[in-house]
Amino acid sequence: MKSERLLSILLLLQTRGRVPAHELAERLEVSVRTIYRDVEALSGSGVPVYAERGRHGGIALLPGYRTDVTGLTADESRSLFVLAAEGTHAALGLDSAIGSALRKVMAALPAPHRPAAELAARRILVDPVRWLGGPQPAVDLEALQDAVFSDRRVHVRYRHSGASAARAYTVDPYGLVSKAGVWYLVADRDGAPQLLRVDRVEAAAVTDEPVRRRDGVELADVWAELRRRVEDRAGAIAVEARVRRPWLDMFVRMNGAYMTEPPGSSDSEWVPVRLAFGDIRESRQLLAFTDRAEVLSPREVREELARAAASIVSLYDDADSRAP
Questions:
Q1: Which of 204, 167, 198, 203 is nearest to 185 (CA)?
Q2: Strand 201-210 and strand 192-197: pairing?
Q3: Phi, psi angle pair for 293, to nearest 5°
Q4: Is the Cβ–Cβ distance between 220 and 204 less than 8 Å?
Q5: 141-192: per-residue pLDDT in tens?
Q6: Residue 70: which pLDDT band, with cuts at 50, 70 and 90?
Q7: Does residue 55 sit in helix, strand or coil?
């Protein structure tokens, strides 16, 4: 609707200052000509907005002009009070800040929307931690936050998965991402994108050097690339397996991140599943299902699980011999 678009332009200008017409057109998915018509409409209604043409031009409000009109719809009001997920703001040290901010927003909301916003806060709870995720180690985000917001490089000592000792790196951070209750630092190392789990960062020190990010690349761009790498699992080991039907739901909950497609259909006791592991050692977690899940192929994964199972048997045989 035109009225919503005009309000969006007004709020963007208040937030950003001068904004190029083509950028407003892209953000609002209209033509540049439409943006200029909207500017004329705002000006005609008494809003002190003006357009400067040329290379460094754009749309802007006269200095000092502000409006306290929020323009929030009922759904937008509810969405703000749902976003206050437990854990995320606490990890950033912003628990009190989000509460204070929401109280201010509540005071500014149109009166008819306040009951809906209050109800959303009482009826919707967002818990970002996955089921069966186990206890999460304490995470210190202070130094990494400092590096992210001050646009400086950071020295980290980072322990990779499966490694016994940490390694030292200097990275150029784009930002922090919380996914399913786990914090990640998204950064470049030697110009290449890296994804570092914050709970594996043993030490972090912010340098005085300015960050060296790739031109025109933002956090969302790097995160999308890294997430795609994880999800696509390029070069991963494709595994065909079968799971006893009574245990299928639990299998999917625990191994869904490794499954490449939904479970197959079957009328028998066994249900076929397909998975992909980045490393053959990752397949060992299937041993948690003992005889309730069986790998059918490839052979090297079956042999890896057989070796692991034999090692477990040997361990407990030795334990029996040492028992008093």
A1: 198
A2: unpaired
A3: -140, 140
A4: no
A5: 888 988 998 999 999 999 987 678 899 999 999 999 888 778 899 999 998 9
A6: low
A7: coil
Distance, CA of 72 to CA of 105 (rounded, Å): 10
CA–CA separation, 149 vs 163, rounded Å?
A: 30
Q: Which contacts (CB < 8 Å, 24+ apart) does range 83-86 have?
A: 83/126, 84/121, 84/126, 85/126, 85/127, 85/128, 86/125, 86/126, 86/127, 86/128
User: Distances from the Cα of 142 to the Cαs of 148, 178, 196, 299, in angstroms?
Assistant: 10, 15, 15, 47
Q: Other CB atoms closer than 10 Å to residue 149's CB: what's the count?
A: 11
Query: 71 with 30: CB under 8 angstroms?
Result: no
Segment 3-30 shows an average pLDDT of 81
Token pair for 263? 């479970």
Q: What is the pLDDT, as a whole number, of residue 79? A: 64
In whole angstroms, give the CA distance from residue 242 to residue 290.
Answer: 12
* Residue with the two structure tokens 């761009």: 221
Contact (Cβ atoms closer than 8 angstroms) between residue 136 and residue 199: yes
User: Do 153 and 210 meet the contact criterion of CB atoms below 8 Å apart?
Assistant: yes
Q: How far apart are CA 261 and CA 157, in angstroms?
A: 37
Tokens of 321: 């011999």
Three-state DSSP class for 173? strand
**Which of 177, 172, 168 is CA-nearest to residue 198?**
177
CA 54 to chain centre: 38
d(C-alpha 286, C-alpha 282), whole Å: 8
